[in-house]
TrEMBL record:
Protein name according to UniProt: Transcriptional regulator, HxlR family
Domain HTH hxlR-type: 14-112
A GO MF label: DNA binding
Origin superkingdom: Bacteria
Entry keyword set: DNA-binding, Transcription, Transcription regulation
SUPFAM superfamilies xrefs: Winged helix' DNA-binding domain (SSF46785)
InterPro entries referenced in this protein's UniProt entry, alphabetically: HTH_HxlR, WH-like_DNA-bd_sf, WH_DNA-bd_sf
Claim: Manganese is one of the keywords in the record: no
Keyword Transcription part of the UniProt annotation: yes
Length: 124
């Protein structure tokens, strides 16, 4: 493994670009936000993140675990019991992703008003 003093997200070969892509992907950010305050099981995550398929959730969890942002604890029980929690780095980045999503939610009416082609949508 190469030793980096700092990443360069603008460099095509820098691993920071791949991690940024995972964190800001459609599902990666939502998984990080969902795990922000508690440890959850797979089914709990799937219920929390409306619209995510089992396959996509499994892939997303695997990628974020590979990036060192999520810990997976398998209890080796039948039926399977697996918990997911954030690592210290995962907690830090989750807080930042949450801050961004919170800003978007708070400013949604203004953002939609600025989008000329935005169709009216129900906000929950």
């Amino acid at each position: 493994m190469r030793n980096f003093s700092r990443g360069d997200v603008f460099a095509a070969a820098c691993p920071s670009r791949q991690i940024l892509q995972h964190v800001t992907s459609r599902w990666g950010g939502l998984v990080l936000i969902a795990l922000r305050e508690e440890t959850l099981r797979f089914a709990q995550l799937r219920r929390r993140i409306d619209g995510i398929s089992e396959r996509m959730l499994a892939q997303t969890l695997q990628v974020l675990e590979g990036d060192g942002l999520i810990l997976r604890k398998d209890y080796g029980e039948v039926p399977p019991r697996v918990d997911y929690t954030l690592t210290p780095a995962g907690r830090e980045i989750s807080a930042r992703v949450f801050a961004l999503s919170d800003w978007i939610e708070k400013n949604l009416p203004e953002l939609l008003a600025l989008t000329p082609d935005a169709a009216p949508q129900t906000v929950q």
